[in-house]
Amino acid sequence: MTAGAARSGTFAALVPLQERPARDPITSTLHPERDPDPPAAPGGRRTVRDRERRRGTGSGRASRIAFWVLLVVLAAGTVALRAWHQSSAYELFMDEIQYADVGNSFAAGVGPQLFDEPFFLHPPLLFALFGLFIGEPVPHMTVQFVLGLRPIELMFAAANVLLVVGVARRVVGPWAALLAGLVYALDPFVVRFDSRLMLEAPMMFGILVGILALLVAVDQTSRRARWAWLAVGGLAWGLAITTKSTAALITAFPLLIMIVTSWGLRRKEAIGVLGLQASVYLGYLVWVVAGGNVAPWFDQTIAGTLRAIGIIKQTGFNSGHAPSFVDRLVVQGVWFFPSYLLIGVAVTYASYLLLIGWRSLRVTREDRGAHGQRTRGAHALRGDGDDLGLLTCWLAGVLGAIVYTFGLGEVEEQTFYLLAVPSTVVVAMLVTQMASWRGVARTVLTVVVTLVLTGSSIIWFTLRTERDDTYLQLVEFMYANIDVQNEVAVGEHTAQFVLPGYGIHELTSVDDARATFSRYAIVSTELTELGLAPASPELVDELARRYTLVFTAHGRTAGDLRLYDLNQPLDGTPPVAPGPPR
């Protein structure tokens, strides 16, 4: 009896059990153990890749060449999609300024510092990399400096699309894997983060390298090769955590599932990968101790951990002053509906796989020896099923982590990047199964996939051809027209970091401006409406009624970014007196 035939009521329920590999795409990809072809060698593994190598036909070679050519084109296209108008298509994000400043401190040789203070809220690996791309450290952050570092993200985008295809290719055919890469390349939510100087794409690089290494490991017949690839996976996941500690959510969770259930990997293997992953982070802690930075590391890391697990809710949608998650979802739906649709479909399908597949992911009595121990060479799943078991545990960990974060932790928009990228792999599995469907179900899913790709393409073109760079326009105007000796009151959080030379003060009322002798005031209509700025909507309205608007720039992120001259009142009130020379 084949392994596939033995799994009644499990993953076998996905498709009929007829041996029809040529006509049943799900059988010939997700379930190669049902392939009637003999294994390559006695006791050998029957995988998609083994069968393709055995065939070796001219058409097979042509298909492989076409696959690699299209993969190169896809990687180049992914970079081009993000590089075109990269500086103007997405507004400057305050986190970008902070990350650029920490990278600048590495370039200056002083280690992780944010505005001359120790910075350990995030591990330093990526900031050290940023520092390598900074030829000459700067004394102050500017918009142009931060935007100049954004192209660093392009190399991670190129690598990640290759990794997405590689991960998908371990369990599905080449064309479904390429489709997963295409979805990644176009997804508006993913593109937004890959185009900015953010931590998500580099963190996901380590996560994808790790899961791909583990998938390669479970295909190895040699014990030494298997453990070597497991070590690569553990090291990659450790590096992901030292890029952004949030990576632990979707790396440690899956390993814990494997340890408890023995799915995908043997328990001792999962423990080994988890231990290696932890040892990488431990090496970072040793570096912290050696540098005498235990106190700032402890304070900032503990605070970040308490926010992540939900004990402290200062930021994110679960905090008391944050805008409603549903409202934000509706507002951004016009720009990200393909991403929402993709995530929704992928989560539904992944949950479906978990529900129907849990029995086949158990270790059965047939897999154990006489004393209840697993026999040498027997895994939680046989053949290519190890790949499915590993991916299932990974997806279960991703879903579990997101559900916890959404319900109790510090859920932010970037949290869903951890779900959006794995969703592209799930889509490849779904499309593969879809090929064996008939009738309405296949038509509906075809429409959904087409809608996701078409909508993503239209949104990409719209975003890239419209400017969303109000801060760049503001600072260019100010340095060209306003003396840097002036005091400026800012009613939002970003401008204070990119206006070196000006006297900067927080603006919550006109009285604040008077007290600080501020000649000018800066406010953002959109950030104020969302509650993400110190200025209130009433103050924005008051400035519009009472003072002269000297500059405004409009973008979809900041709304109207306005600059008012408080020495030119419109209602006859006394002007704000300029302060003493600085």
From TrEMBL:
Specify the signal sequence span.
Answer: none
Report how it sits in the membrane.
Answer: Multi-pass membrane protein
Q: Does the keyword Lyase apply?
A: no
User: Where is this chain's protein located in or outside the cell?
Assistant: Cell membrane
- Keywords assigned by UniProt? Cell membrane, Glycosyltransferase, Membrane, Transferase, Transmembrane, Transmembrane helix
Question: Do you know which InterPro entries this protein is assigned to?
Answer: ArnT-like_N, LipidA_mod_glycosyltrf_83
Protein name per UniProt: Phospholipid carrier-dependent glycosyltransferase
Species of provenance: Actinomycetospora flava
